[in-house]
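Late entry, written up from scratch paper. The run itself happened at the end of the previous shift, but nothing got recorded in the book at the time, so transcribing now.
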Amino acid sequence: MQVKRIFSILCALLAALIMTSCSFIDKNDGGYDFTDEENKESAVLSDIADYVLVRGDLSSDEEKEALVKLRKTIEKNLGITLAPNTDWLDKDHKEKEKEILIGDTNRVESQKALEGLGYNDFVIKKDGKKIVIAGGSGVSTMAAVDYFIEHYIDVYQSTLSYPKTEYRYVQSYLINSISIEGMPLSEYRLYSHDPELDITDVQTALSDVIAGERIEIAETLSSSTSRYIVFSNTSLTANKFSITVDDKGTVYVSGSYKSIDEAKEYFKKGFFEELAEKHGKDINITWHDNVEKYVSDEKIYSKEDLTVLLEEVYADRNSIIVGQLVGAEAMPSFALDTYLEGTGKYPALLGIDLGCYGFELSEMDAVDMSRAVCELVDYAADGGIISATSSYENPTGNWVIGGKCYGALGGADKWEELLDEDSALNARFKAQLTVDALFLSALKDNGVTVLFRPLHGSNSGDFWFSATSGEDTASAEHLKRLWIYIYEYYESLGLDNLIWVYSPAVTGDADEKSVMYAYPGDEYVDIVGCGWSTSDKKELSKGEKPYLKLTSETGKIGALCSFGVNTESDLFSVLLSEQEKIFNAVDLLDLLYSLRSEGYSFSYMMTSVGASSIINYGKADQFVLDEMILTLDDTAPRLGVK
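Output as recorded:
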């Protein structure tokens, strides 16, 4: 009895399916279905010969191609040549009684058939003496013609047919209709701030999955013509993205260089799924739907963790943290990859210059700034240590050959002007500090501590902010006041993620001042160190023993903030093959062991870039394998990074 009941139910369902017209088909598997043979009606070929093929006068390339394809197929298989035409009407161009309408035309029959079609949907129908083959887009019109050729033209029997009523292919979309602050999605355009950021996948998702509506990608923004969904990858918060609607109805899909891909993926699916769950399949997006998402929850060591590590390494003369400076206008990833290729290890420390010798932040575009922040955040999350300096641009504009950070500031009056908050010179210099602060604040907001080394080499004659600049000598008092000015300005901005590093030069130049010349005071300095460009491998140990003078007189832990071979000395060769013979990385290692035996201790050491890079010395792979040298593999676990 139960079996008979189930059989009766199945028969009823089958009958219902047979009774249901197959003129409406949902695509659930990416293909088309056709089972409606009873809905076909054969055409008389002599009647078809009287028809004209018509497309829109402003039809898309796909619609033009679709008409040509159908015309050639009919001619080849049925022996009928149909005249092509457009829907243009004037006194010389009259509407024909019998027309096969391809795509979006101005004919009433076309417009009626197209109502409610999404981007991938199409319809085939006979309306009076008009045959309509059209889709919600040029792409789907081509699909409609392909479908018509496959199912309504019998190449073996040389016959043509059409649906008695209509065949309508409609895809199921996640959302039935979308508006934004009351404006339909069709009024919007997609726009990317970064030309390199591909958003065609978002365009495809909107048309193929989300709403069946294709909106164009704009090359520029124009408030008078369209509303926009704007994609931006310039955020300085590495692991977060957001989708927001402003009071003008503009939608912003915003992320960092790192998180923008996650933002796009979420916008293509999860965002609309959540809206559908909340509002149903007809949605109006407003600021109430704004969201923020985090793409990861990376734990980065604290300032205290780093301080403890540096103190431990400094106290242990058998070890030293080693790192690499990043070159001018290069990204951190390039320096890391180059170091890995040259040594087989990642450096434990990475040095950046925010000014003339590095990022040149004042000229850096927003996308590159976001990328630099993201790469440094990822490096810190892996246990990498970051050092930053800024080779400030000469605010007078009196540059000399060599770059913007050279030339002289001037005499005492110019230094007083520089430190005067009401002066134009101060404003130009402070603008550099402010740009640098934006970058340093971004690192703080991402949880990154920075070894900050301003006014490096201030006792030398290297830069405009050095003791000897041209014919003028900057007084120790002015240099100290400038350091304190920078320190207090950054303190007022809440930049408490900085470990302040005082770093004079040790080069052996005749006009070099004592390493304590511009020391601003213990309360303004956390670590001391020196920039060492060696000519004879003895600068640290000769004379007043400058490095030991620094550490002993200040009581601070010390570091080799930068190390390189003086390119004008006998220790340097422009030929890499010769450099290895003169002074290589193993020679540097021997030098460190020699200094250790003399009582020297260093928390860290950074090598320079370019010709003075440890990679170019030769034998760098042997250098990093020595038990004294701490690379990222060694320091990351000690900072709590697994």
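The radius of gyration is 36 Å.
(Scratch paper discarded after transcription.)
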